[in-house]
Amino acid sequence: MSAAPSDQLVELRHGERRVLLAPAVGGAIAAFDETHGERVIDWLRPATPAALAARDPLGMASFPLLPYCNRIRDARFVFDGALVDLSGDGNGFAHALHGNAWRLPWRVGDTSKSRARLHLRHEPSREAAHHWPFAYEATQDIALDADALAVTMSARNLSDRPMPFGMGHHPYYPRTRNTRIHARVAAMWHSTPDLLPTHAGPHACVDAMASVEGMSADAFDLDNNFAGWSRAATIAWPDEGRSIMLDAETPFDHLVVYAPASHPGLLCVEPVSNVADWINLDVDRAMKGGAVLQPGESVSARFAWTTCVERGVAERVRDA
């Protein structure tokens, strides 16, 4: 198929499963659902028409994080002996947040019924939402099949100097009072009130997520990074007889769980390659993640959401 204009939604289908992409809204996924009889199951929280009209990435189902994940303290860091100041990049936050790819339009490349490729090329600029003093290009290869939605993220440093780098994705899941989270992590990063990490250590949620029952999404007030992730997590709705498993390749070795008590409808379980403010943290790289790409160097990694609806549930839905 020919490339679609980037300001249009791109629909992928496989049987009764559907994905909507919003290239103009930071290369985001706008919806991932499937139909059983008259019931539509939302595997990710779908974007509303208002969020799409406003081109609000925070209102999407999931959006890419490049060239770093989460926050950078005071939007500043020193790299290779030079100060990098991101305070004027138009992000609207006290600390630089999630890079710039989520606030830029992506271009649609090759597409088919169940696959699409999205492209982004960034050149250094002082314009709002564009300032990152390193040139890079990125792609998302998004594929839908009978079991999973897979995303392969790739990036290449186009600068003539090394570039600090991190990547991830920021999915929102439907959150109910019965939602459970299953994951194995080594430690939780404790943080300041403005969500900058201080130290990694134990927390009751680490044990809760590793338990057979999993952790209730309402059990803790969380907006935290986790180190030593096994690169697999499951979000389950046992009362609905369904679950979705997130699995990832390295360097998605870190996890973010966002389950705020103040917003009981929000739940994020995010695969990321670096913890917040990694570039300013003086700790071992294995604990904080992040990377440095040399000129011309590339990185690529895949993650996927595999869905499961219990057979009895699917049959009841079809027969309803």
TrEMBL record:
Protein name (record): Aldose 1-epimerase
GO MF term list: carbohydrate binding; isomerase activity
Pfam family membership, one: Aldose_epim
InterPro entries assigned to the protein according to its UniProt record, in alphabetical order: Aldose_1/G6P_1-epimerase (IPR008183), Gal_mutarotase_sf_dom (IPR011013), GH-type_carb-bd (IPR014718)
CDD domains: Aldose_epim_Ec_YphB (cd09021)
Organism superkingdom: Bacteria
Alphabetical GO biological process terms: carbohydrate metabolic process
Taxonomic lineage: Bacteria, Pseudomonadati, Pseudomonadota, Betaproteobacteria, Burkholderiales
